[in-house]
Amino acid sequence: MLHGDWNLNEIVTGFIRALELMASLDPELIDITTRTLMISLSSTIIAAVVAVPLASVIDSREFRGKRVIINIIQTLYSMPTVLVGLFVFLL
Questions:
Q1: Closest listed residue to residue 74, CA positions, set 58, 53, 63
Q2: Within-domain flag for 9
Q3: Does residue 1 belong to any structural domain of this protein?
């Protein structure tokens, strides 16, 4: 027994069910997977288009507040993505 009412058999059963769904090529599962991949790909491309030039400017130039900007960016790296998602959702 792992925790509470969970046991290894339930985890294995769930894993097997997930493999069965993937192997069945269920149209709904394919649609969900495709949509997820497209959203991830497009958000990665948009982020790269914005972030790479901005990072290049921050790195190559000296200006007042550069250290503060770098510290803010590094602080954001340590924030859990769930917290960021919750914050964006509340906006």
A1: 58
A2: no
A3: no
